[in-house]
Amino acid sequence: MALKTPQEYIESLKDGRVVYCNGERVPDVTTHPILKICRNWMAMDYVLNQDPRYQDLLTEKDQDGERVSFALMPQRSRDDLLRLREMVKLWARVCFGKPSGAKFVAKDGLNAVTVVSPRIDKKYGTNYAENVEAYRRHLQKNDLSFAMGLTDVKGDRSLRPSQQKQHQDFYVRIVEERKDGVIVRGAKTHISQAPLCNEILIAPCRAMREDDKAYALAFGVPVNAKGLTLISAEPEVSEGVNLFDHPIAGSIFINDATVIFDDVFIPNERLFLKGEWEFAGEVAYMFANFHRLSAETYKAMELELFTGAAALMADYNGIEKAPHVRDKLTWLAMYTEAVETLGRAAVEHCSSEKDSDLVYPNPLIANICKFYFADNWHQATKYIQDIAGGIVATCPSSKDYFNPETQAMLEKYLGGKAGVPTEDRLRMVKLVRDLTSSYEDVLTIHAEGSLEAQKLSILQLADFDRYKAAAKRAARVENKQGHPIFDELPAFPPSL
């Protein structure tokens, strides 16, 4: 089949899956008034792949000469990463800062198990690498959308998976081994787009110990598998949402669902990790390495939108020349371009594993980029809300603006600078409201890892030996360990 049309993608979702949203079982996720928002957003992957203008960027011929999504190909060079980065930029610009989720996250998990599975095979004589490649071909040939099931619900965070007191199912685990596969139970949460995907790629979210080996588990599972239940995240909007009041939330529903496994059977050929506990942390670590490119690229595109909205609100309010506004816009522009530059630098200085031919963004630069973006987001929110004004919180709805009885009054009194249509100003106000919602604030801090996780990674990855060697040389302190950079430098000041 190779590349699906958007219509074929939508039809593929009518498969009897068990999905709940707002307290009700959803008989058809393709027609549900809220889930349709996620459906249409996901479908943009298929719209763009069919567009001749983008096929050379977004698709690649496989070993059979058939076009498949480039997102499903392993990235083996710096040029591959740069191309993938351009793909994510296109996805994000088309979809108002949030790339279509059809293959956005799970592709990075697929690369992670591609790297780690041969290591497990080498130690234990398993055939996980063969399973991973068969799964990759299955995804390619059927052009499937798939979600990444990484985060377990965790229960008591102070306890390891096997130490949980209330029950043993806070992490997805094996409850029974059979000759032809395993039975799994547990739950994953924050699983973006899962109710509108064809498959979910499950992987451990943390390092494990031997006592936790039942939880050291990675596999691919179809969303309509028997025993699988998906409970949608609470939508930001309600039925009948319009794009005037909610230009972002009415177009994008990430649907970070909770996915519950109630004794789900996983056949052997879909297993990529089954109890080899010492490799669980490696899978999680490698996923984070690959996903940094995705995360930091779309965030730079989201900031284009954010900073543009701030600049337009300054224009529309007639305050673009005010010194404090100019300072804020300057800061926002620097913030936007710094995230873009750091994200690209991580790709330009990409890293690899000694036992794999795949490459991924430089982890140190990538973690700095993620921390910088997330740590400064609330400051950016403060600036754009200050520029836009209190109307962001109090603006009447589109029903009032387009009501013949009240439109003339609102048109007169909610106008801004002369020459700017009132409707344009109000549309921008609504955009700012969507962009600076509490949902966006929380998402930015916690998506792709918390601030503390970034700091921990940066501390571990930073080259303190190099920093110390520089300082010892300047202070004339003997460096007994030596350093390849500073040991070779000429003496300074010179003896002349």
From TrEMBL:
Keywords recorded for this protein, A-Z: FAD, Flavoprotein, Oxidoreductase
Domain HpaB/PvcC/4-BUDH N-terminal residue range list: 5-273
Domain HpaB/PvcC/4-BUDH C-terminal span(s) in chain numbering: 281-475
Species annotation: Desulfomonile tiedjei
GO MF entry, a single one: oxidoreductase activity, acting on the CH-CH group of donors
Superkingdom assignment: Bacteria
The protein, known as: 4-hydroxybutyryl-CoA dehydratase
Residues annotated as signal peptide: none
